[in-house]
Design goal:
The protein is α+β, with helices and mostly antiparallel strands and about 700 residues long. A hairpin with a 5-residue loop joins strand 6 (about 380-390) and strand 7. The chain contains 30 helices and twelve strands.
Length: about 700
Amino acid sequence: MFSTLRVLVQIAFRNLFASRLKTAIVGGIVFFGALLVTVGGSLLGSVTGGMARSITGTLAGDVQVYGASSKDDLAIFGGFGDQNLAQIDSFETLKAVVEKVPNVARVVPMGISGALVTSGNTIDLVLEKLRNAVRKETQGDRSPALLAEIEAQKEHVRQMVQVLEGEQKNLVALVDATKLTQEDRDNAMALARAASPQFWADFDRDPLNALEFLENKIAPQSTDADMLMLRYVGTDLSAFGRSFDRFRIVDGKPVPPGKRGFLFAKYFYEDRIKLRTARRLDKIREALSVKGQTIASDPDLQRMVHENERQTREILLQLDPTSTRNMTKLLRDELGSKETDLGRLLASFFAMDDASFERRYHFFYDRLAPMLELYRIRVGDTLTIKAFTKTGYSRSINLKVYGTFEFQGLEKSPLAGSVNLMDLVSFRDLYGFLTPDNQKEVARIEQAAGERAIDRAHADDELFGGDSKADAAQAPPAPPPMPKEAMPAVSAPLEKLHRDDRAARDYDPAELEKGVVLDAAVVLRDHSKVDQAIRDIGAATKRAGLDVKAVSWQDAAGIIGKLVMTFRLVLYLAFLVIFLVALVIINNALVMATLERVREIGTLRAVGAQKTFVLGMLVVEAATLGGVFGGLGAGVGALVVALLGAQGIPATSDVMNFFFSGPRLYPSLAPATVALAIAIVLVVATLSSFYPAWLAMRVSPREAMASDE
């Protein structure tokens, strides 16, 4: 048998180039197919691996555990944190069970939610500074520095009023007076009063009343405040930083253990908190220097330039009179202009083109930006977050912004940079869970009201009457009256102070593990054994009586994770279509080549060759052709992958940055991919040879030898 096989292989190699048509068609298709499978499979594997690294290295971990009775599926990416997840009552219990599972390295408590946050407008911020300064003056501080600050802030407010009044006049000039609403007229009257000398002459006599007018009537006319859609994860921030090695602090510092605090995602901070004009300049510069675009040819860049030209009010409102004079002088010198109106100077300055952009970009940041607040919320500020609990009640908390963070390699990715972080204790407060602080407040209120616990068996008697003597004998002694200074606050200002005080208080880090969570991220030692870890975690939690389920990072990532499967299906479908077409073409080519060899086949049959020998000869020839050209195609494909791996494929969009797990994708070749490519083309070539071989076996020696005559 082996000798026969050796003869068939020798004949196959001898006839490899006997038919140029067969070799050209079949060999070319096999070569291209092997090349496609090698390169496509390697790219798919690299992209899938990149997405896995992006998802597991940011928020999801390798496995996610959450309540089995949840009405919604967990989706780490996408949505606005409004998933209906069942709570896990004790993270401490869950962690103790899951950490005993082999291959589990860390378990991180988590919870995802969202809130709308008002960033405040420029007038509000200036009025707050003025109010604080006036308050110090009323408390007896008459220092020259404080008085100078008050005058400077007053001048700043007056200049803001002038800017708003100018816009109001432009509105009146553009709109028919009969079409102005009553609100427009009221706003115009308020601005006229705030701009009058009499208003500012009366300011010193009754500053608090004047400030109230400015805050209620003038500040709302400035529309530069945004409602920020803030998506955040509550977690043990120390454990989070240790578990996700791509996490790093960019600005500020980490939230200290035991402190409440907030960390902005750097991408979100730059995109949503930064001065809009500055953010547009950053985007234009990135497009010019990184993506190779030009302002002259790109409509989006032209739109951003025009927006900077028209939308200068955000800058004008920030400037006090001194800064206005300084910026006017700088711009006049830079532009060589005699214009004295700062608004027109700014519009001329921001009318940038490809030739002037780089110089003006640096001029803006070097000379103008120091006079501006580039970020509406600064590191170190207090951020008020107001959210609705699952029961429909609103809760709010003030958190200090300790800094910003990012995940290395994903700095430009909106998917990785859209979720912010807060401490888990504050998350529980906002979500409506009963935290130790809340329990203490409830106890204080019960004590103040003289409340006591009632046994369920005696509830009817307590509510509707009963044996008063027996009740009196069984009732616990009434608590002593609470001192007046210990009574819980009830008025709005005192309640706000109490809330601020609670947010500023330290907490015991042990609270993080003892309380409620919505989900937990599980980081494995061996990241390739996710399926086994899921089975082990499921079995362990079931034995412990925990109503939870474990899912892979791909399932926990929501629609982003499903894209991985979509990519695979699309590529496999493309391979299937290509090889079905190849099967037909190869089959036709082999039929034609076989019919050309009818006389040769007849001669072999005449000298005693059996049908099985002829069948084997043709099949081995097709397999040899597939092996040779398939090996060449796989080799060239491996070379292409190696070259791409050395240079990298740049991510041309923010989404690709996430899929590539960085700014460039460096494909790698897996030996299994090469073997798969060769195996597929061998199978296709071999299957394609059966029909021509069957036709050849049907030809009798006499017919074959007579075909030439």
